[in-house]
Design a protein that fits this description.
With 256 residues, the protein is α/β, with parallel strands linked by helices. It has six helices and 13 strands. The chain has two domains: 3-115, Translation factors (Elongation Factor Tu (Ef-tu), domain 3, Beta Barrel); 125-238, Rossmann fold (3-Layer(aba) Sandwich). 21% of the residues lie in helices and 32% in strands. The radius of gyration is 18 Å and the shape is globular. The structure holds flavin-adenine dinucleotide. One of its GO terms (molecular function) is oxidoreductase activity.
Length: 256
């Protein structure tokens, strides 16, 4: 990538959705080409240091260490606008801490989006598991399900107040699991998923969140409860103790 692969995005509005999630609305020329109604679009963000107005300078030697990945929660191409829901996970990092302090008029750099490889059309029922970083992506998929869809969605959140409205068909039961310490193991989420009543037919499976949970379920849905590959999306969105470029390098290393 070079600087021409990035465009400025200006913060138009900020809203605290829940104690640990902030929605920022941006405008950018790239947003004119975002696809309305497309499932699971995500892009790379270059944010300035927390508290700075930006935009950050594009440095071809260091930008890869600063790039972070975010889901396009809503896109409004006609207005060149989009929303990103940022988890504010503490003082460490760039994007989360920046988002918490961001103000209208602040600027970041964004890439063009990519799309998740996940399809649900041929599924008979649906299973979702997401921590807060993956709620935006899971919510988009749930909103796109047909009205007759059935299944379960498990959301692991940091506090009771972090529940948020998620529009899903009536046949999808939403379960909220509170885990106040993001460093603690996800035992309750793992138990809950491994104990669900397995319905007839082929499920679609969406699991995204911390690395260790994604790794466990990648094996589980391959070996113990084999699911159709084309209906299964298991993805590590972040890793405890690693910044995003380290997490990416680690994933590449274990995949090699
Ligand atoms: C396809 C995809 C879509 C994503 N969509 C979203 C999204 O819409 N919203 C969103 O908030 N995140 C999303 N993420 C996750 C996000 O990219 C990471 O959380 C990223 O590391 C945040 O960057 P940072 O600069 O805040 O922290 P980093 O500098 O990467 O990390 C600093 C420290 O914070 C820890 N950390 C990072 N993320 C979290 C977290 N969520 N909870 C607790 N500790 C954390 C790290 O382990 C590290 O110790 C997505 C990831 C992927 C791969």
């Amino acid at each position: 990538m070079s600087s021409s692969n990035f465009a400025e995005a200006i913060v138009l509005r900020t809203a605290q959705l829940t104690p640990h999630m902030y929605r920022l609305t941006f405008r950018s020329e790239f947003a004119a080409d975002f696809t309305l109604g497309a499932p699971g679009q995500y892009l790379k963000v270059l944010a300035p240091a927390p508290g700075e107005a930006g935009p950050p300078a594009f440095d071809p030697n260091t930008y890869k260490t600063q790039m972070r990945t975010y889901t396009l929660r809503h896109v409004r191409p006609a207005e060149q606008e989009f929303d990103i829901d940022f988890v504010v996970h503490g003082d460490e990092g760039i994007a989360g801490p920046w988002a918490k302090q961001a103000r209208p008029g602040n600027r970041i750099l964004i890439s063009r989006p990519g799309t998740l490889k996940f399809s649900v059309e041929e599924a008979d029922w649906h299973l979702f598991a997401a921590d807060m970083a993956a709620i935006p992506a899971a919510a988009i998929e749930l909103e796109g399900l047909p009205e007759h869809a059935v299944g379960d969605a498990f959301f692991e959140i940091l506090s009771e107040e972090d529940r948020q409205p998620v529009r899903a068909p009536a046949g999808i039961t939403i379960h909220w699991i509170i885990k106040a310490d993001s460093h603690a193991p996800s035992d309750e989420l793992i138990d809950a998923i491994q104990s669900i009543t397995w319905r007839d037919g082929a499920p679609s499976v969406f699991v995204a969140g911390e690395f260790s949970v994604a790794r466990l379920f990648r094996t589980y849905f391959r070996k113990e409860r084999p699911t159709r590959k084309d209906l299964t999306y298991v993805s590590s969105y972040w890793k405890l103790g690693l910044i995003e470029p380290e997490h990416k390098a680690f994933k590449a290393q274990i995949a090699a």
